[in-house]
């Protein structure tokens, strides 16, 4: 009985048929591979650490002081 109490929140596409009617078509969400998710999290953490420490990256790697 509880199945119909909550609205369906799945993403849908709206398609227009040849006679002008609009039809909702459910869209399957692609699953994100675990490795890709971990890589994205690590990039975010690295960016946060670099922001906090004030370190910058340049094309040659980490920034070096060339004043000699």
Walk me through this protein's architecture.
The chain has a domain at 31-62. Strands 1-2 form a two-stranded antiparallel ribbon. The chain has one helix spanning 34-53, and strands spanning 12-16, 22-26, 57-58, 61-62. It has one helix and four strands, in the order ββαββ.
**Structural class by sheet pairing and helices:** alpha+beta
Largest sheet, in brief, is:
2 strands, antiparallel
Order of helices and strands: EEHEE
In what order do the strands lie side by side in the largest sheet? Answer: 1-2
Specify the helix fraction band. 25-40%
The oligomeric status of these chains comes to single chain
Principal-axes geometry comes out as elongated
Q: Which runs of at least 5 residues are low in confidence (pLDDT < 50)? A: none
Number of strands: 4
Strand content: 15-25%
Whole-number radius of gyration?
24 Å
**What's the end-to-end separation, in Å?**
78 Å
User: If you average the pLDDT, what whole number results?
Assistant: 79
How many helices? The count is 1
